[in-house]
Amino acid sequence: MPALVLLGAQWGDEGKGKATDLLGGSVDYVVRYQGGNNAGHTVVVGDQKYALHLLPSGILSPGCTPVIGNGVVVDPSVLLSELSGLNERGVDTSKLLISGNAHIITPYNVTVDKVTERFLGKRKIGTTGRGIGPTYADKINRVGIRVQDLYDESILTQKVEAALDVKNQVLTKLYNRRAIAVGQVVEELLGYAEQIEPYVADTVLVLNQALEDDKVVLFEGGQGTLLDIDHGTYPFVTSSNPTAGGACTGAGVGPTKISRVIGILKAYTTRVGAGPFPTELFDEDGEALRRIGGERGVTTGRDRRCGWFDAVIARYATRVNGLTDFFLTKLDVLTGWEQIPVCVAYEVDGKRVEELPYSQTDFHHAKPVYETLPGWSEDITKAKSFSDLPKNAQNYVKALEEMSGAPISAIGVGPGRDETIEINSFL
Ligand code: GDP
Ligand code: IMO
Ligand code: MG
Questions:
Q1: Of residues 392, 384, 387, the one with CA closest to residue 419
Q2: Looking at ligand 2, which residue's alpha carbon is closest to its atom 13?
Q3: Are residue 117 and residue 8 in the same domain, yes or no?
Q4: Which of 128, 172, 264, 371 is most buried per CB count within 10 Å?
């Protein structure tokens, strides 16, 4: 059996955690392949609510092996505190596997993230401040520290020296900060080594063997398509590839193994941080979406920017990810609107465009062209099948499906595991 990818089709926070958790009971492995603790995945199981940042959402399903792939950036202190937080709540985390090739977010990467943002002033990206960009920059610059380096003190010291060589010049001379001592960083990192060691594994080998043995592997994306470093709204993006191809590089699994790519799609749109957002609302509707949808960041506590559904973005996500299905989330949040506008195209400098403009300038100028669909007022949170939905809600879903270019195979009508309408099975 196959490998499935589950990823965000918009700007993150689409409900990936809930969707992953829902499938977690039926899959053997759940793998994070990119990003780090910039993610905030909320999972609601019964009356328990979990906020996961670095750990794969599959960690809450007892039969499932959670894996942190080579493409992830790992902050060891966050990892250990997330694990102990779950242990305190009775969650068994002993099956976790972490790639020895995953890069470590060091304390200086976090410092550089914060000072860079401050230096950028009003041009800032609005990062989560977790050191994500600087850690990936070190990886690409070949001065990164990997999980396996924690087990060779001499190599670790040399690598930290190499990484701090230039950084300390920049920190002291450009940013007016104190230099960071190599010894202090090495000591801190070595302090985590022993606790992490039991989890470290050759995850590429493990996952490929699992696939050969017909196990089911689910790759769980962090962030979303429009935050992708290559395919997102650059430079207002994260520093990794949440898009489907990232699952292959970030876990060491070939594209021929992947049989299904599920895009998680919110029934409206949100974004955290800076950058263009054509359907953003600055009025009472935006405020109502934020309030009803509980649109506040799980990681940074920032209010999320809110707007109507954007079909241009959904089509784009279908294309760049090769989506086979959508999981539409938070349909219940739209209950009560008499009319619901949906963006079907953009107007860019007086011309109608159907697809996402590749030019950043054009995208910044894009104005939404709306079609208005009739809303519904009935409570839909108890709906178990598509036919339980009011006619107008059914028509809203069908319209989104038609515009977005892939079948909607599941619909979220509430945050809980069971508040889901399954249309086509994912497995
Ligand atoms: P993620 O980062 O993609 O995992 O999403 P977040 O957890 O950051 O944000 C999604 C929020 O919506 C969480 O609070 C979820 O509990 C909640 N959620 C997920 N699906 C649904 C749904 O269908 N309806 C409602 N009302 N809430 C949902
Ligand atoms: P999940 O997995 C929403 C955004 C930040 C910022 C940009 C770069 O919960 O969907 P970074 O710290 O990654 O360098 O910040 O990306 N961002 C997210 N927005 N959901 C996320 O994760 C995000 N992770 C990063 O707000 O705009
Ligand atoms: Mg989130």
A1: 384
A2: 238
A3: no
A4: 264
> Do 235 and 261 belong together in one domain?
yes
Mean pLDDT of 232-243: 98
CATH assignment at residue 236: 3.90.170.10
76 lies in the same domain as 117: no
Q: DSSP of 142-154, one letter per residue?
A: T---BGGGGG-HH
| Torsion angle defined by CA atoms of residues 287, 291, 297 and 303, in that order, rounded to the nearest 10 degrees | 30
Structural domain range at position 368: 3-91+202-422
**Among the options 21, 28, 41, 231, which is catalytic?**
41
Q: Any binding-site annotation on 304?
A: yes
Report the pLDDT averaged over residues 95-102. 98
326 and 247 part of one domain: yes
Separation of CA 372 and ligand 3 centre (Å): 28
Separation CA 78–CA 54 (nearest Å): 8
pLDDT in tens, 267-277: 999 999 999 99
**Same-domain status, 298 and 386:** yes
Active site residue 391: no
